[in-house]
């Protein structure tokens, strides 16, 4: 009976951590600076770390965590592996199957402050603390990418909240993209680039999905030029820089996209008439390669033209009626 109770307790703790991690990983994308649970608030900087290293080396990166609440909070620190979501929207997805694969590299990673290595950290109200993420790579460490989060999950606040899985806890973390070199050549391709061929009005939306075939993550950049039938540039849409994990695909969004969780490229122009060409330029990294593609589409403001025709017909009818009356 006692063993069963212990098992249930461990299972409950594991479920709590798993639920909290999923919640935190999503929040890192949607709201990377802070996470709230009831009156608990915590901030972290940076929200993402991109680390490129070769062995042998000792890599150190700063992380600061800020207790923005009015109460003392103790955070437990976890290293959590993730992969790219199957939705290809840039959100990380916690993957338990990676735990064994990451066991060796996690043994080379430490979170510390001026007093030494930490597995927990306690912060007073409004206190900010500077930490260091250290990665020691020995001689002969093979080239490979590792993607994980340094997650801080608070202890339950108050006796009455200990049974609550998420509501009494707060958490936040830093996503880490670790690439151990030397790197192999960067390669990939445009997996999808499309938009509507016929429009009656704007704004105009395009879908761009890019595949990274490299053995390392890439950081893309690019833009979309819109040209009219005379070859004049009438629109220039810049893309949001996007990290694409090794072997994964990701949809790319523009800077003016109102919902980053659904990446898409938007041309804000509302009045459209004629033939347009959308010319895409995309770089997988600062060193390339660079890919180009294009889409031609036609716009006819049917509603506006229909409205004008109605006005013209009504006007002609009124003129004819007026003339028929004067003829009498």
Question: How would you sum up this structure, described in words?
Answer:
By secondary structure, the protein is α+β, with helices and mostly antiparallel strands. The protein folds into 2 domains: 179 residues, Sandwich (Immunoglobulin-like), CATH 2.60.40; 117 residues, Sandwich (Immunoglobulin-like). It contains 3 helices and 22 strands. Strands 1-2-4-10-7-8 form a 6-stranded antiparallel β-sheet, with helices on one face. Strands 3, 5, 6, 9, 11 and 12 form a 6-stranded mixed β-sheet that branches. It is elongated.
List the helices and strands and how they pair.
Blueprint lengths: L1 H29 L3 E4 L2 E6 L2 E6 L3 E11 L5 E12 L7 E3 L4 H8 L2 E5 L2 E2 L2 E4 L4 E10 L6 E11 L16 E10 L7 E8 L2 E2 L4 E9 L5 E10 L5 E6 L3 E3 L4 E3 L13 E3 L6 E10 L6 E10 L2 H26 L1
Parallel strand pairs: 3-12, 14-22
Antiparallel strand pairs: 1-2, 2-4, 4-10, 5-6, 5-9, 5-11, 7-8, 7-10, 11-12, 13-15, 15-19, 15-20, 16-17, 16-18, 16-21, 21-22
**What is the total tally of β strands?**
22
Beta-strand percent range: over 45%
- The largest beta-sheet arranges its strands as 1-2-4-10-7-8
Structural class of the helix and strand makeup? alpha+beta
CATH architecture of the largest domain: Sandwich
Using only C-alpha atoms, the radius of gyration works out to 28 Å
Order of helices and strands: HEEEEEEHEEEEEEEEEEEEEEEEH
Distance between the termini: 108 Å
Enumerate how many helices there are, as a single number: 3
Please state the average pLDDT score.
83
Q: What profile does the largest beta sheet have?
A: 6 strands, antiparallel
Q: What is the CATH C-level name of the largest domain?
A: Mainly Beta
User: Shape, please?
Assistant: elongated
Residues in helix, % = 10-25%
CATH fold descriptor of the largest domain? Immunoglobulin-like
Tell me the domain tally: 2
CATH homologous superfamily identity of the largest domain: Immunoglobulins
